[in-house]
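Q: Structure for this?
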Amino acid sequence: MFEEIMNGVEQMNVQLDNALRFHQTALNLRAERQELLAGNIANADTPGYKARDMNFGSALGSALQGRGTAPVALSTTAARHIAASAPGSSAQLLYRTEQQSSVDGNTVNMDVERAAFAENSVQYEASITFINGLLRTMQQAVSGQ
Amino acid sequence: MSMFNVFNIAGSALNAQSMRLNTTASNLANVESALGADGKPYKAKQVVFQAVQMGTAGQGVQVKQVVESAAPGRMVYDPKSPLADEKGYVTMSNVDAVEEMVNMVSASRAYQTNAEVMNTARTLMQKTLALGQS
């Protein structure tokens, strides 16, 4: 009986996981890109620094297919622990094409970086809104109204 | 959680830019100094930035070193000064006030930008923490 319930719980967990996986992956990548862009903005005055970014679409694609660095797995110390893993980084870092060269070799274009940072923030919030919507939908389904 | 790294990165930039502001303040204060702390004419100081790896992807910034400008000092004709050479010239500091003002504006704008980056990251993290609560 107990085993049956646990199996059911596990199955439900998997389903919940699957429902949220896309947005979770997207959110993780957005946070990673935010970090990259913050690094570019921080190094706007560093001589020789090359601005970096990722192709979000292809990074999301490869993350959903499980490519990239090995995922970090949660260690389970008891038989009833539910295994879980967080994906590793799947983003391939690219160098930004320079539009106006500067003498010190720095390729950070503040306008581009600021625009990308703002855009990425909005997209991050959008992902959060989607997840909130999904959770609300599930809550409604569970409460049976 | 990589969003925490944004704080580290922007924080390192705040630190570096405030150091740059510090040297600018020191240079501007000593525009008219004929003598530095070492007894020689004051030399303008400039910070050198260097990128450092922070977290998985992002790179922060640090001040690698503070260099003294090699520009020649301003020569002022003032035979009455005790520092004047045999021709009556006094070597003043080599600070270029215009350059320092530009440096100051650039540093303060960079500081503001990074503070804003931190604010954005904070807002996003708060929204992440409130997931599923509304």
